[in-house]
Specification:
Number of domains of chain A: 2
CATH topology of the largest domain in chain A: TIM Barrel
Strand content of chain A: 5-15%
Shape of chain A: globular
Largest interface: A-B, 48 and 47 residues
CATH architecture of the largest domain in chain A: Alpha-Beta Barrel
Strand order of the largest sheet of chain A: 6-7-10-11
Helix content of chain A: 40-55%
Structural class of chain A: alpha/beta
CATH class of the largest domain in chain A: Alpha Beta
Number of helices of chain A: 20
Number of strands of chain A: 11
Oligomer: homotrimer
Radius of gyration of chain A: 23 Å
Chain lengths: ~475, ~475, ~475
């Protein structure tokens, strides 16, 4: 496979201005060989725990599990059934080569999007495809990829080594037995660590909450019939996760509202949840209270606390009923941090044992609330641009709106936050390039010295993520 | 009239970086001759229906009807009376040459604004004025323009042909008899189409609501004494508009709140409106319900639905009382789409017969709500940057904040949304230039191939608007 | 002290694109010698009133009073005690050379921040330090600065002359006797003017409200036992401030909510405040009403009204209890202008005797609300980017989001809003550079003529601030 012009420009993400571009290359060259630190993501640990695991067909690797791909195709009229997504009650396409062809015919939809950039990078740098995917070469490329994916050197484990990943944190339910991590550790893969994510039991409106609680009961080996027992369960599970290598927790909620309920109030809400008779406001009050409790536990056990806020999950009820969650139908919400975090920060904001990393998709809060909070409280770090904003422009907005107030050292560097294992190097590549180009812009504008630029590039590419998540 | 340096730079809107600028020119050259598609605007069809129509004096063309011009002059202390705006009760300036002189003396206020750019383009490219307007040459330029405007080749019809407008959609009240469109169609001008805009009757707080309803009654030839009849009236009028060539409807509201009222609730509110005794919240509830009804009708008759949300009309009560609406005193509001559109999208968001184009002036919702919604729902397209944001920076923000998530193919291309007929080419010119410069930036940054750039330029300049409004 | 490369780039804040950069230099050269107009700030007039006043140690000058510096160091774990901040009850570091060393060791935190840029400028241009501060040279630089600061030519008065400040407005409590200004005026320093800031008495939840009221009583020489007397007191004090050279007032509040209470309502709230029994909402209602009253008084006495809105003061209660206000723990809030200012603008928005300058830190309101309001009402001007946004990117966002709608002539130019006297030239330098670079961008993009660029540069650097505050 040969073409004249590379599919993937060596200058990608860099300013066309020659002096800035040259400097961006220099910064990038100085950090591009650093290992990848992946402190927050959603890779299935089973992929790595089982040496015989394979990615399946190109369609199983690139299309079916990727909600960014699904949503864009769906938005232009491609039914999810035609993409092989399992439905509750109807047949779905099973010919993966045909799905791939359909995808290739619509690949133009991803022009200028991060998904398009990642995919080009993966095809080029992971699989050696050196032509742009289109409807004519789709079948040929499919066959080529299918051949490679069957080879041991394209197994998840082999790629894990090739990707130079120094540490990879997974995200795991509070009730998870972490068997995959255990077996990986026994094999020496201690750099794969769990993260404690209790959303399924602490958000009282989570789908299947009662079943999730039952799983939590199983994990601690006793019944959870009161709020007090529930909190004990969380504490026990955190201790277990920590023993299994976790350094952090994570929680998602529609809003970063925090509040401190009395024990009686918390017990009353929990009791109503158990009998399935929640009052209006119970969900928000309980989640807001658990944020406080999780902060308290972080002070006690030293796990870094993460908050991901501001998404309305499953916005499309018909799609959710038919195909379930994570099909690209989650839509961000506007949020407010200054007032909502006030109770939590009043209690724990100055505590040297506490660390909180916050993520949101309301970019209007970057310069107004997030950077000022991180630029004052010793306990707060800012997570990188999240989800829809994990893109060239999204990162540039983040740098330009956050860094003047918070400085880079109040951020947590980068994390890829992905379940698409093969996209990890591509995502870090974009971050590192955009960061280096931003720094080159600061230097060419006389705002930062060249020497400082090299230090900052390394911090953004590597050091900050490690130290933020206590991985050093 | 000769000057050395052109008033209008051939490089306008393009980056000074030479490589990007060259490519922007190439993209622009490839699309600049494409016809103009104008699927949403406010040109008075009478201007075109009457072959003898003229624009009047330069002041009547450029100043008196342009609320962008009026608001800026008013904001710096120029009374609207001095600009010839009719008042309810007092004399107003009638010497148009004097008004033009006053305008020229204040023309520096428009430095760096879109109004300034449009006006320079119109003077140069429509009228051949090749010097910058100022207080010294104002009278001379006035006389020159006055001479031209009397000529048949500067009649609205002549300019319509010269402007290479492929289709022009007007905006018309629900009760409009569309006589102008009818006579235009009979003359062969079938490319001039109406748009169904029922704001005056569906927004129960619209000025003169009762009179507007009376007109609607006349248009259907019977009394509207109930909500049920009202809905029938809307359906009948939509059918009439569709027969007269309409492909779309439009609605404006302070908020995109949608809700489904029961028939009894809707009847009760409508009954209160008829007797002029609305309860608090009635207006918002009724408009929110009508949004749902308009979506249902769109599913049935195939008209594209448009929503323009987030403006407080007539913010300045003293000005409104004296001079009426549309004098530059409408101020945008913050809005929310994710929760507000949820009811409507839950009902119609996946319906293949439905199409919804949304517009807002709360740019914080571009990346947070609008692009994610359009990047998921097959029914949603994003309208171009609207009103105050129909500008070089406004468009760049739109491209940078929308396209990574929604891609360009979930947008409706450009529309000029103007009542200033003569400004139409200038407005499309700015859009096409900014789009080409943005694409050149993507190519020089290695994010899009040059070949893709040409395709995207054509789509943004022409194809997307046609297909979004079902004009192809 | 000699190094090869200057610490402060002569190209700082300018685009690396050569044509734009050259033009930016030309614009900057044309305005850099203009005097500084400082119509809003917080310099202590005692510094200037007393010819023998000195700045103290380098630590007293640069660190202890600067809440930008304090918050960043605190955010990375440096205790305020170690920085010499007085606490209510515990010892604090008193060795200023040691504090300076600690600061230098953490100076990398300010990379790319406005504080870092200002400090480099001050060290270079005010004190002639020509090397970058670091942990190794910290002691040497401290000694050097300490030596200079003892010299008469580095007294506040000497620097005032050297800085070429044409006018400097201070900010003073309503009860202030303005003795410093009086003595300055007697010495001929009439360019130092007070500003009337009644927050401490009109915001009923201001710390020490009762004591503040007592001071106000003293200043007018009689008791304030009713709302009516309170309003009279404000009027009397405004008259006194005006006599002492004030041309403006200023008010800060969490929100720009305005409302008109009846006399009875206002009296009732004031009576509750006097007995310390406020109802929920009283504070916001009263402040909102006083905004209206202050506007009325501005119409009567011609003082320019300023509103600074959208900050939650003292967000960190533990820090506040220990160290008091203004230690970097104020966090911005989202705000709304369109609805909140509606009552005030309905009453005074068209009044030729009224002028209102508004400031906020919610940048999402720049293009959505602030620019449209200023681009319509003849009474509104926009203040420059404030507080956290007084930075290179903050200014660029302001220019790009405000100017297309409001034009530059509806803004109030620049003010430094600082209590750090020595940083004044550095802050104006950043504004002037960013403005010139922005204008050079407009010219090189063909949006503004070069000649217009020179006019606009002068307006932004000098004229607008003078005329906005009636200082011409």
């Amino acid at each position: 496979m040969l073409t004249k012009k590379p599919v993937l420009s060596p200058d990608r993400c860099f300013s066309p201005e020659p002096v800035q571009r040259r400097l961006a290359h220099q910064f990038f060259d100085s950090i591009s060989a650093l290992p990848l630190v992946c402190p927050h993501g959603h890779v299935d640990p089973a992929l790595l725990a089982n040496p015989a695991a394979r990615f399946g067909s190109p369609t199983e690797l690139f299309i079916i599990p990727d909600h960014y791909i699904l949503r864009m195709l769906y938005s232009r009229g491609v039914p999810l059934e035609a993409l092989g997504i399992p439905t509750r009650d109807a047949p779905t396409e099973t010919d993966h080569r045909k799905i791939w062809q359909l995808f290739a015919e619509h690949f133009y939809l991803f022009q200028g999007t991060p998904s398009g950039l990642w995919l080009k990078d993966e095809l080029t740098n992971v699989f050696g495809v050196d032509e742009a995917l289109n409807s004519r070469n789709a079948g040929r490329i499919y066959d080529y990829l299918e051949g490679l994916l069957a080879l041991p050197k394209f197994s998840p484990r082999a790629l894990f080594k090739r990707f130079n990943i120094e540490v990879l944190c997974t995200t795991d339910a509070a009730s998870d037995n972490l068997e995959n991590q255990r077996s990986l550790h026994e094999e020496g893969f201690t750099q794969i660590r769990p993260t404690f994510r209790p959303d399924a039991v602490v958000n009282l409106d989570a789908p299947g909450w009662r079943e999730n609680l039952t799983k939590l009961e199983s994990s601690i080996g006793r019944e959870i019939s009161s709020y007090a027992t529930f909190v004990q369960a969380l504490e026990e599970r955190r201790a277990f996760f920590k023993k299994m290598g976790a350094t952090a927790t994570d929680q998602g909620a529609a809003t970063p509202y925090t509040t401190s309920l009395s024990d009686q109030e918390a017990e009353a809400i929990f009791a109503r949840a158990l009998i399935g008779k929640l009052n209006p406001g119970d969900v928000e009050q309980f989640t807001g209270h658990i944020f406080m409790e999780m902060a308290r536990m972080s002070v006690e056990d030293g796990l870094v606390m993460q908050m991901h806020c501001g998404v309305m999950r499953n916005h499309n009820p018909a799609l959710f009923e038919r195909f379930g969650s994570d099909k690209g139908a989650d839509i961000p919400l506007n949020i407010e941090w200054t007032r909502n975090l006030h109770p939590l920060l009043s209690s724990y904001g100055n505590n040297q044992r506490f660390r909180l990393i916050i993520f949101g998709m309301d970019e209007s809060t970057y310069s107004r609330e997030m950077a000022p909070l991180a630029g004052h409280y010793p306990t707060i770090l800012l997570g990188p641009p999240w989800w829809f904003h994990d893109s060239v422009n999204g990162m540039e907005r983040y740098f330009n709106q956050v860094m003047e107030t918070a400085g880079i050292y109040n951020t947590a560097g980068f994390n890829d936050d992905t379940r698409a294992f093969v996209s990890i190097p591509a995502r870090h590549n974009v971050w590192r390039r955009v960061a280096c180009n931003w720094l080159a812009g600061l230097v060419t504008r006389g705002l930062v010295d060249e020497e400082e630029g090299y230090d900052m590039a390394r911090a953004l590419a590597y050091d900050l993520a490690k130290s933020a998540y206590k991985l050093d």
